[in-house]
Amino acid sequence: MRRFLLALPFAALPLVPVHAASDAKSAEELTCSNIVKTGDTAKTIAARYKGETAIEEITGAEGATAKALAIFPKDPTRKLLVSFFDEGMTKLSAIGPAAGASHWTIAGLTFGSSLSDVIKANGGKFELSGFEWDYGGYVTDLKGGKLSALDGGCVVTIRFNPPEGKEVPSALSGERSIPSSDAKLAKLAPRVSDIQLGWAGEEGDNGSGD
Fold first, then answer.
1. Cα–chain-centroid distance for residue 161?
2. pLDDT band per the 50, 70, 90 thresholds, residue 25
3. How far apart are CA 37 and CA 210, in angstroms?
4. What is the signed CA dihedral for 165, 10, 137, 123, rounded to 10 degrees?
5. What is the pLDDT of residue 203?
6. Contact by Cβ (8 Å): 5, 183
7. Inter-residue contact 83 to 93 (CB < 8 Å)
8. How far apart are CA 133 and CA 178, in angstroms?
């Protein structure tokens, strides 16, 4: 999991306000082969969704920016952002719903999913990083659960965000690992604010195109 996190400065999507999870019955599942798949490039995706893509700029951790391919850019409920490891947009890195795109779920999870929702989807507990820094709130260890081995060879990246205006205890802040069973974490009640599917790059890939 940590190896994939190295790509996050260029793959991370903007955090969104935490609201209740979307209605799973009306949502569409993003998988390792739906909507994009291994080997896809910006050109193959644009050809498949002709007239429904656009190039945009995304900002990740530490202020890093990169180009992304937006799918369904004119539909805020369905908009997806696809990132790549290289400037030529030929090495697929990640895909995830854009802010407010409530149409999508990943493994049954979406914006607003709770700690217990993720534990249930994973079939067990997990760990996440402390809040209030560039990599805060990311799930760092799925403990070998169901979410750590998705069909199709991609991996899920999940980030939690505390409720707006709620003070984060110092014990839950900074570069530390927090078990999902932590009582202070349960009281804080963070919700999923970012969820993506990602693909491993070649050794040395970091999204910079170097």
1. 12
2. low
3. 23
4. 130
5. 54
6. no
7. yes
8. 14
